[in-house]
Amino acid sequence: MRIDVVTLFPGMFDALLDYGITGRAFDQGSLVVNTWNPREAADNRHRSVDDRPYGGGPGMVMSVAPLRATLQRIHAQTQQRARVIYLSPQGAVLNQATVTRLAAEPHLILLAGRYEGVDQRLLDRDIDEECSIGDYVLSGGELAAMVLIDALMRWQPGVLGDAESVQQDSFSHGLLDHPHYTRPACIDGQAVPPVLLSGDHAAIARWRYQHALGQTWLRRPDVLQRLSLQPQDKRLLNDFIDKFI
Ligand code: ADE
Description:
Layout: E1 2-6, H1 14-18, H2 20-28, E2 32-36, E3 50-51, E4 61-62, H3 64-76, E5 83-93, H4 96-103, E6 107-112, H5 120-126, E7 129-132, H6 142-153, E8 186-187, E9 190-191, H7 201-219, H8 221-226, H9 231-244
Parallel strand pairs: 1-2, 1-6, 5-6, 5-7
Antiparallel strand pairs: 3-4, 8-9
Adenine is lined by residues 87-89, 132-134, 136-138, 141, 144.
């Protein structure tokens, strides 16, 4: 997968290249990320990329010309037009379904805005989709773009080992994750649930699934409501509620 990011702060993306699974994805070449600074496409004397808003008010607005020129430079490099995503709090809130849909694209362009936002005419003509990472405001789209890249990268073939498989991620089945434990079996009087020490793989799988259902019921009833639970799932959940609540 290729991702081009249009950003005034390309250096921020070094954090992705240097650490953990994202770093490994770059090393393997499973994911190629290029950054483009729109300042380089600004043809005015001061290389400015923003201007005062029409109608007045505080802050600055990112101008059309340097952003459009940057996008055109990226499109000129490829035969198939890449999907262009603008990260902003006005976008549709990112979820696992959007991540899996976008992960199937061979090439994406992410536009990270700064200041009060981007001139609407760029959004109207040059952007395919607007995406938010949550109902709060960041000082720019860079961190949001990195969140999206991290989530996308997990779905690229060969990036995760078996142990880290996306199939085991929370939300890959639409549920929150079950709790996890490691050694020692007892610490400061806190014991690991005995079934996890039993070696009974079917019982362990059942316990994990039951706790995934239970955690989702407890913490995200909105998520559970959107799923159609089978009768056996409902029984497992009722049993969780009787036993653990
Ligand atoms: N830019 C600023 N805030 C944002 C958010 N919540 N999501 C995506 N991009 C943003």
